[in-house]
Amino acid sequence: MQQPETRPSLIVRLKDQRNEPAWTEFVCAYEPFLMQLVRRQGTPERHTQDVTQQLLLAIARSVENWTDDGQEASFRRWLSRVARHVVIKFMTRERRQIAGQGGTDFLDLLEQAPDLVADAAQTRQYEHELIVWAAEQVRGDFHEASWKAFWATQIEGRNVAEVAVELGVSPGSIYMSRSRILARIRAKIEETT
User: Fold this and answer.
1) What is the pTM of this model?
2) 16-70 pLDDT, tens per residue?
3) How far apart, in whole angstroms, are the C-alpha atoms of residue 23 and residue 16?
4) Which domains does the chain have, with CATH numbers?
5) Within a 13 Å sphere around the CA of 24, how many CA atoms are in the beta-carbon half?
6) CA 149 to CA 160: how far, in whole Å?
């Protein structure tokens, strides 16, 4: 795979997280390279897209701290280090996941606690409504295409690849838009709670 050309002007524009055209350009150019980095670090194929999205978020949070070291491929080496840290963090979390429990004792315990299931459903419904409300509050801050991609994949639960084809964008740009919009929604919710 051909590595993308690193243009310093694009990197400078990335330091502004709200520069949507720069981030779209970056994702379009670098997404295949980033997915390859994630795979090379040993990420299972079924998690590659999710970890790549986490990598894009890590890049967005830390790109302002990147400085050119004056050597060739400085930015790509930095991306490789960030990818390695993201994959290590992901793999560590995966190993800590507790395996599901089962058996008749556990089933009996579940049957004795029906209110917990109802409470959980009510909590999920409340959280969903809160997210939808906050989303409407920040909607005007984003381009319409980004908003449509977010709404279709996050709220309606549609497949990212399907929505990408429908909107004529890359899946990576949808993940990036979604991440930025969700971060804004979280901030809005924190302001009100």
Assistant:
1) 0.51
2) 877 888 888 888 888 888 888 888 888 888 888 888 888 888 888 888 887 877 7
3) 9
4) 8-96 (1.10.1740.10), 114-192 (1.10.10)
5) 15
6) 8
